[in-house]
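Morning F.,

Quick status update on the modeling queue. The single chain you submitted on Monday has been processed. Sequence for confirmation:
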Amino acid sequence: MIPQIPENPYLLLTPGPLSTSKTVRGAMTRDWCTWDDDYKQIVQKIREELLALSGGGDQYTTVLMQGSGTFAVESVMWTCLKPDSKILVLSNGAYGKRMGKIVQMIGISHRVLSWEEGQQPDPDQVEEILQTDPTITHIGMVHSETTTGMLNRYEPHARLAEKYGKIFILDAMSSFGGIPLDITAPKVDLLISSANKCIQGVPGFGFVIARKEVLESCKGNSRSHSLDLYDQWDAMEQDKGKWRFTSPTHTVRAFLQAITELYEEGGIAARHERYWANHHSLIKGMAAVDVRPFLQEEDRSPIITAFVEPESSSFGFGKLYNRLKAEGFVIYPGKVSHAATFRIGHIGHVFPEDFERLGAALQKIRFW
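Structure tokens below.
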């Protein structure tokens, strides 16, 4: 006898994978043939809806890519950076550093401009570099830097890219679908995100919303076969909704359900409001047990919050993790390089009342 799969024993308070609705999970209970028109229509519907959510219009297109969000980031770099390209990567956390590592391993000329974790990228410094180094062709940065929970103000940098004629790449992995933005104002040439973030699907693929003119210019450029974003897009355009290689069919169908539920909630604006309500409920509960956020209020995001570990000798993240897990909550370890922190996410199928329960659990288990 096949054992029954139990209900989720805890909420995932992480930046993804995250807690999903029963109906999103339920959408994965049937199988699909990737060649059938009914499945390809699902893929096309997703592509159309993502484009609509971005505000891109006819100048933009959408392409889905198997794998984690990092696969999608790497596909952009392999495909859109040419042998004579030079990218300026703006980094103030682990995911900016990861973008820099990817381009380094590809062997493309690059420069990483770094700030302290918890410090906003400075557009004046960026402009100074653009004025003195005309060989730069691309600018890349992270929107929601989940290392700290900082929401980077990407707009000044996108405007600089347009002013100086550079291609602007935005890693909006953990922000797209949960934070309102218009991909055309200021212009983002390539926006990257993933199924298992703010749209509240499950892991399995990422996606890129690209300006057509930029993507079309990348034909034949990629030195990676599986990560060739142009070829993936061309396949989906020529045989509407067809992936080049085996697609994550169950994840794809769940993602369409997740998009439906996003609209039912009231769209990105309503989801953004809920995520902020989750954040404020979390901050209140943590303050009650004398735990403070790592970032100042003006830099925090509605996605995830990093907290400074209490200085008490009795505190240990492992102890906190296990006790909260027993209470029905899973949190994230810290990623800040120069401070002892841990992180709690507020995206996914979670609500302010869940964070009120978390606050009560913290009062119950407090050991510091």
